[in-house]
Design a protein that fits this description.
Elements (H helix, E strand, L loop, with lengths): L8 H21 E10 L3 E6 L6 E7 L5 E6 L6 E6 L4 E6 L4 E6 L5 E10 L5 E5 L8
Antiparallel strand pairs: 1-8, 2-7, 2-9, 3-6, 3-8, 4-5, 4-7
Length: 137
């Protein structure tokens, strides 16, 4: 039988333990969340805010109304990232500690297909009323 690593058994074992010690925390740190998200009329979905690392949202608008996506950085403020029209898709990056704000100020229920990757371990999720000044009609 051919040996994969030409090292004594104790060194192979040490190498395996070292690799596990490095890789397991990384696997815990990064995860994938898939969601068929519904946002009621006049509400916004809040994602993130307490995570140490960045995260990415791949979104596809499968509903009948446009959805505005904004970023609320850890340091304050808010800025628009994009608006997804029905049938449109996009991939958005959010920084460490940032919050993704998905707004539906319309009179109909919005529906998004989301895949969230990156630092998802402490990713908070909640709904709240749409704040004044949103631009989606």
């Amino acid at each position: 039988m051919t040996r994969f690593l030409h090292l004594p058994a104790t060194r192979r074992h040490l190498l395996a333990v070292l690799a596990a010690a490095i890789l397991l925390p990384l696997l815990n740190y990064a995860g994938t969340i898939h969601s068929n998200l519904f946002i009621e009329a006049g509400k916004q979905f809040i994602l993130g805010g307490d995570q140490r690392g960045a995260f990415k949202v791949a979104a596809r608008n499968v509903g009948p109304v446009p959805v505005e996506i904004k970023e609320r950085p850890r340091g304050g403020g808010i800025f628009g990232k994009t608006t997804l029209a029905p049938g449109q898709k996009g991939v958005l990056q959010f920084g460490a500690g940032s919050t993704a704000v998905l707004l539906n100020p319309s009179a109909e229920k919005a529906n998004l297909d989301l895949t969230i990757t990156g630092d998802t371990k402490q990713l908070g999720m909640t709904y709240e009323p749409v704040q004044a000044g949103s631009s989606v009609k």
